[in-house]
Amino acid sequence: MRLLFLCHNLKGTGTYVRAYELGRGLSLAGHDVTLIAVSPDSKFRSRREQESKLRIISSPRALHDGFVLNRLTSGGGWGPLDIYKRIRVGMSRNYDIIQTFDHFANISIPFNYLRKRCKAKFVSDWCDIYHLPGGFADSFGYRLDGIYRKVNFLFRKYLKTMEISIRKNADAVIVISHFLKDFAIDCGIDASKIEVIQGGVDTEKIIPMSKLESRKRIGLPADSKIVVFLGRSQFDLDILIRSFAQIRKQFPNSYLIIVGSSLYRWPREPAANLGIIDGYIEVGRCPDEMLPIYLCCADIFALPMKDNLVNQTRWPNKIGEYMACGRPVVISDVGEVAEVVREHGIGLVARPNIDSFSENMRILLANEELASEMGARARELACEKYSWALMAARLESIYFQLLK
């Protein structure tokens, strides 16, 4: 099959990881895959890379995003060169499948243009609720937020419409959780064309390592208790910081490590106010080869989530890395991932409040045998059910069914 993936994000960030891993898996199965994402550093030129049968095109970034532009347009994806490149590539070959990730302008405009002119089947991948009521766009607040919302109401209206319209007009819709599937059906999307493909992990890249060896390489005490949080989005991190402050009362020689890109300044202030700044470590985005080392320093992983529509319907990517490292997780009882943790016994599920989250972390930190058993089950589950190779095979079968 000839496949075209259109991803809204910058290359290497956000949903790009999902698009890349699925595309890589399909290319290894012998399919010709082209993936387009936005270049992180080139404003006016495209770049091409080739990995076996996976072709990666980084399209021009000019006017894609920016501090003010994101707020004026309610999100990135408005780069004219980027949009033109996607349309041009879509028209250049007879693709069997064109799969879009998200619904932003650099997705919706090519989608609507190509759908009328190409014989390909169109698949829409839906990972997060963004511009609909209760979505990410309502979760973020910033300075002059009220003014921006008045100025950009036309952009918001367009994107809100596209978030549903693309899915209604696609030949198939891939959602990341069963909770999101139910939401999609409630929005009027035909249930018969919705399939669930959850997040995955590269179980060959992320493998369990010795805690002692990992800590030695990072320079952390071998006998300390370490909680690790991985993620670029940190809007629920206050739950973890305040919970960890309670943990330090029982385990003074403990550390909270935050691994991820685009770290915000705000978490440091409550960490300092709560007196835990000496045990609070921000790593930032680390090289791929270092990620397993930082992760495997952990006794436990943390996945705090507030109980809202965004978290109820999404599948946080970090759970894959958590499982693959062979460590247990403490997670808030929100969404589908919490059900997986509870069902398979790969961690503890806390009520979505600080006291409960702290107590469940304390239980696992104090019981190494229980933590070890849960971690072993987590690794086994990652390999047997949540590897990207399995997710790509599932997507391939959906394509074959669609092309019949």
Structure, explained:
It is a single chain. With 404 residues, this protein is an alpha/beta fold. It folds into 2 domains: 2-200 and 387-403, Glycogen Phosphorylase B (Rossmann fold, 3-Layer(aba) Sandwich); 211-385, Glycogen Phosphorylase B (Rossmann fold). It contains 18 helices and 14 strands. The strands form 2 sheets. The protein has an 8-stranded mixed β-sheet with strand order 3-4-2-1-5-6-7-8, sandwiched between helices. A 6-stranded parallel β-sheet has the order 11-10-9-12-13-14, sandwiched between helices. Strand 1, helix 1 and strand 2 form a beta-alpha-beta unit. Helix 1 packs across helix 18. The protein is globular and about 65 Å long. The two termini are 13 Å apart. The mean pLDDT is 93.
Strand content is 15-25%
CATH homologous superfamily assignment of the largest domain: Glycogen Phosphorylase B
The side-by-side strand order for the widest beta sheet comes to 3-4-2-1-5-6-7-8
How many strands appear in the DSSP assignment? 14
Structural class: alpha/beta
Count of folded domains: 2
By CATH, the topology of the largest domain is Rossmann fold
Dominant shape: globular
Kindly provide the name of the CATH class of the largest domain. Alpha Beta
Radius of gyration: 21 Å
Number of contiguous helices: 18
Q: First CA to last CA: what distance?
A: 13 Å
Mean pLDDT metric: 93
Helix content: 40-55%
Please describe the biggest sheet, giving its number of strands, its sense, and whether it closes into a barrel. 8 strands, mixed
CATH A-level architecture of the largest domain: 3-Layer(aba) Sandwich
